[in-house]
Amino acid sequence: MRRVLSWIAMYVLVFPVSPVGADDTDARITTRLHTGTLEQRLRDMSSEAARFFDGLPESERTSLRGIDAQQTVETRDETELARLRVRMRQLSPGAEITVVLRDGERVRGELAGATEDEFSLNVPHPTGRKGVKFDRTFHYEEVQSADLPEAKGWSAPEKIRELAIGKRIEMLLLDGSKVNGSLKSVTGRRFELEVGKKDVREYSFDEIASVRPAGMRTSSKVVLAVGIPLAILLALSIVASQLG
């Protein structure tokens, strides 16, 4: 295989170079002719490569076809794996899912949780005891196919253009990771997100799988949980003092 790659490199990279004379006019003519030859060779490179491939011994051609087919399969598998990871991360716990593993096993259960690397299903216990379930964890690479419900609440990345600056959003990136933050600016196909205090990150729409409005900050929830009862007690004390 190393010898084949060497042949290809030598055939593609080595071009005839016309000599350049001392006279400027001759040099310009020679350069123009050489440029035209190079451009023509580049246009014909695919057909020349095909002829070169046909001239190889059958054993070498078979090896190259095998490598090309393997790369095609690997690329397709990576695409399907990324799609499964994103779809799984879009779902909420409790969603009913059926997966077929690469070993042929069919598993049905409720989604217990999903991370960038794996997901868990709440499935019936192997003992068959009625009502008894447990969480079973799988890596995305183990899945041959999956029957997933439609994800709700998620929109295409372009939806960000319609949001007001300062709006809190949750993003699902193509690599399966999630990011929460406040929209700071949008310029062309890029935008800035304020993830934390003094932590502003720039993203491209091409990095994002989907987006949705983010839930309330934990700190805000705490303020409301504590503030509302205090406000009620304060109002009751004021009313009681006025009645007294």
Topology:
Blueprint: H1 2-13, H2 24-43, H3 45-54, H4 58-90, E1 96-101, E2 106-114, E3 118-124, E4 133-139, E5 143-147, E6 168-173, E7 178-187, E8 190-196, E9 199-204, E10 208-213, H5 218-243
Antiparallel strand pairs: 1-2, 1-5, 2-3, 3-4, 6-7, 6-10, 7-8, 8-9
Highlighted features:
SH3 type barrels; five-stranded antiparallel β-sheet; 244 residues; 5 helices; alpha+beta; 28% strand; single chain
Summarize the structure in words:
The structure is a single chain. With 244 residues, the protein is an alpha+beta fold. The chain has three domains: 2-10 and 18-73, no CATH class; 90-147, SH3 type barrels (Roll); 157-218, SH3 type barrels (Roll). Helices cover 41% and strands 28% of the residues. It has a five-stranded antiparallel β-sheet. Strand 7 and strand 8 form a beta hairpin. The protein starts with a helix and ends with a helix. Mean pLDDT is 76; it is low at 9-22, 29-35 and 216-229.
Identify the strand order in the major beta sheet.
4-3-2-1-5
Percent of residues in helices comes to: 40-55%
How many helical elements?
5
Q: What is the terminal separation in angstroms? A: 97 Å
* Total domains: 3
Which spans of ≥5 residues are poorly predicted at pLDDT below 50?
A: 9-22, 29-35, 216-229
The count of strands amounts to: 10
Brief rundown of the structure:
This protein is an alpha+beta fold and 244 residues long. It has three domains: 2-10 and 18-73, no CATH class; 90-147, SH3 type barrels (Roll); 157-218, SH3 type barrels (Roll), CATH 2.30.30. 41% of the residues lie in helices and 28% in strands.
